[in-house]
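Action item from last week, closing it out:
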Amino acid sequence: MAEAHQAVGFRPSLTSDGAEVELSAPVLQEIYLSGLRSWKRHLSRFWNDFLTGVFPASPLSWLFLFSAIQLAWFLQLDPSLGLMEKIKELLPDWGGQHHGLRGVLAAALFASCLWGALIFTLHVALRLLLSYHGWLLEPHGAMSSPTKTWLALVRIFSGRHPMLFSYQRSLPRQPVPSVQDTVRKYLESVRPILSDEDFDWTAVLAQEFLRLQASLLQWYLRLKSWWASNYVSDWWEEFVYLRSRNPLMVNSNYYMMDFLYVTPTPLQAARAGNAVHALLLYRHRLNRQEIPPTLLMGMRPLCSAQYEKIFNTTRIPGVQKDYIRHLHDSQHVAVFHRGRFFRMGTHSRNSLLSPRALEQQFQRILDDPSPACPHEEHLAALTAAPRGTWAQVRTSLKTQAAEALEAVEGAAFFVSLDAEPAGLTREDPAASLDAYAHALLAGRGHDRWFDKSFTLIVFSNGKLGLSVEHSWADCPISGHMWEFTLATECFQLGYSTDGHCKGHPDPTLPQPQRLQWDLPDQIHSSISLALRGAKILSENVDCHVVPFSLFGKSFIRRCHLSSDSFIQIALQLAHFRDRGQFCLTYESAMTRLFLEGRTETVRSCTREACNFVRAMEDKEKTVHSEQWQLSTSQIPVQQMHLFDVHNYPDYVSSGGGFGPADDHGYGVSYIFMGDGMITFHISSKKSSTKTDSHRLGQHIEDALLDVASLFQAGQHFKRRFRGSGKENSRHRCGFLSRQTGASKASMTSTDF
């Protein structure tokens, strides 16, 4: 690795006076360059923070204001109404010859104070403007006069060329809803799934809560909302994630897939080199705040706070609760291959290693013939163990193998070079996609470091994927990074005709450092128990991917419907047909309209949805359920400008998924792939006799067609589907319909 290579410049020698260290010229140069990089980084961060703090103003606006004041003073006008004279009186008297300098300093101080007041006013005005949410309630395609006026004012006060964190000071704080509204909405959400008797009992409890406890708890929330940046997000992070003692694997992590139909190169090391380089380019842009903030309608900013912990972050296990450890920088990645761990440097003397140099380093790891040490191969299974168990074992591990543990936990991210291929295959498209999803979600239980913010998984045939830990941020953040990575490594960096990364290897780079684990005997049994539990949990997960290509977002728009509402009502219909009952349904919704907002719950099993399903089925049912048996989430595509879906229709992300929230429930995520396709990722537990991911997948296809057939424009979809036979619909809709598109790809496809 590069750090070890730099260390050889120190040449120790022994003399009669004892040990001496000779400093060679390269060492002094390295010290100079290291300090220079550090100061550049600190100055860059300071300057970026300064620009962010004064936005939507700019340093040039201060210069303009100062110049205007000086001009007015020259014309014997006093825009300060006497304040500059008072400021001059407070300045030290340096003698008559410096009288003009005192005037300039007074003008500069007055200009700075006035500039600060104007910036504060702009922040307050923008915060008030961003507190307006009436546009959310307006019908699609219509815009009221107040909303048009609001948009114009936001445009005026928003400034130009914002950086990633430019709007953070202007975002409104998340308001505390009235407790009466909260209780009313809760009763509305449980009404469809409770019998009349159970609902009456729940309503009585709700009234008792309002009478006895609500006012004090509401006061606590209001007090926190005045003091904290966000009254709920830190508690959400702590109680939903960090205090959970369940294993992270399946229960907390989620996955993201590669391009569905295309693999740009079959070379594992090359794909890893380009992907790692692209990820670190994203980190560089992130550190410099060059990533533009997400703007709804091109105008309304979302909170960017979650971006801070994408890299150099690890969830550290604790006995009672975990905590998130984030480093400001890291110059290496941790790599796992065939049971061995490596520390691989990512930077040379002056800059990030080139993709070809990174490929060379990954190839050295792949070619390393050394075997895994006893119990080293399964060590990472501890990160898939219950958190309390892993916390206790980690204490011993930190004592015995501190350097190796720090190399993993202090890495920019974790890379797993899998020995098996993955992805869509011609021979069995359905089974291969399901296996691909399962490999990303759980792997073999011991080949992912689930504590890291994310693990980059590179399969032997060049297919990619991510396994993401959930506590540090939500899916749109990692999704934004993943879109940039796929687009950059494929379209910007590219590959040579022989499949290698472009450029030339660097033979002067040292070998990646093999990590040595001194594992005490008492840890061996813990590793075996953790591996056994991880395998049981992994084998119990039933993953199913459904690419539905009969129609997509464009058809739903033609029906003048919200695409998300269309899918949610279809999921309610599909789940009812699958289970014969309604259930409490979770749909994630972001609260990033507010400062440090994270996630809220949309309870999409409403009375109206239930009435719709009953009308579709023409029969009546009410049941009792209190678990999140249907947990759903849409994966947004946020940067369509990075992908040329018209010329390269097969270079589209296939989204990702997560595990079920309940042992007898489903986890369903979906992504709109362009305008003509929707991909569903379904998961459930094999141990449940009530669920079956493939069965629900078929119900979802049927439900989509049935809902579409309610509209005249969609009736032909159902006729096409039924006429060709349902038994082959999975193969036909998700795979064969894309063969013509695949032939347009300009790069090598190895698994299609």
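Closing note: The radius of gyration is 29 Å.
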